[in-house]
Description:
The protein folds into 2 domains: 7-118 and 220-267, D-Maltodextrin-Binding Protein, domain 2 (3-Layer(aba) Sandwich); 122-216, D-Maltodextrin-Binding Protein, domain 2. 34% of the residues lie in helices and 23% in strands. It has helices spanning 27-34, 60-72, 86-91, 106-109, 151-159, 174-182, 193-202, 228-243, 246-255, 261-267, and strands at 7-11, 36-41, 50-51, 57-58, 75-80, 97-98, 113-114, 119-127, 143-147, 167-171, 188-192, 209-219, 222-223. It is globular, with a radius of gyration of 19 Å. This is Transporter substrate-binding domain-containing protein. One of its GO terms (molecular function) is ligand-gated monoatomic ion channel activity.
Amino acid sequence: MKRRDFVVLGLGLALSGALVAPASADVLADIKARGVLKVAIDLGNPPYAMMDAAFKPTGSEVETAELLAKDLGVKIELISVPTSGRIQFIVSGKADIALSTLSITAERLKVVDFSIPYSETSIVVAAPKSAPIKTYADLAGKSVAVTRGTVNDTRLTESTANVAGVQIVRFEDDPTASAAVTSGQFANYATSRPLLQALIKANPKVDLEEKFVAQAYPIGVAIRKGETALTQAINQWIRTNLDNGKLVAIYEKFQNAKLDPKRLQEMDPPR
């Protein structure tokens, strides 16, 4: 099962801008000049981002990106990337931002800048229902599937460093990792809670359940280092749309869970 790459161009119409930013911006000025916001996004990560039955991008991240472009007064170009390529597309300049379920971590902050949090995710470890797994220590002697370059990968690697016999098998994107689990190649899976819920819903016969929560992470927009004007503008946009409830409504529409803006603020790590 191999996920195709899609580049979705020109979604939405240019609308009047509702976001004001300093005139000294570089990437922000480029976005305004070209009239297009280029967004790196992993479209194989339901319910955050995926393709619907009509082959149209949908999900909480897609609608968030569309709202941002609308408020900037520009069109949107969604650039579909593998999970492991989200940061790379920002650093290389192939995309203006990455809005793709990127947790704000100290490791990533060394490479890119982040906005304040606009969403959150919990990473979990799943296994067969009969498996007596309650902590990372219980993975001793077992193989675990995970998507490369995710916080699931980082947390799993760090937390099992001293656990004997753990074999971590890394896949380049979530669909491939999920397919390996649903096909029976792997019994244990480190992933996000929403992705696990979507996987179980789509495959009700799979013997898999959440065993424990590894950690909850704030999610931010990834931006190239040094783009102060763009970062400040997006931060203000996030504050505005958390306060008016638009970002909360988008999250809850797709995640079937509550989003607490105050909790997001408390989760935001020091920069």
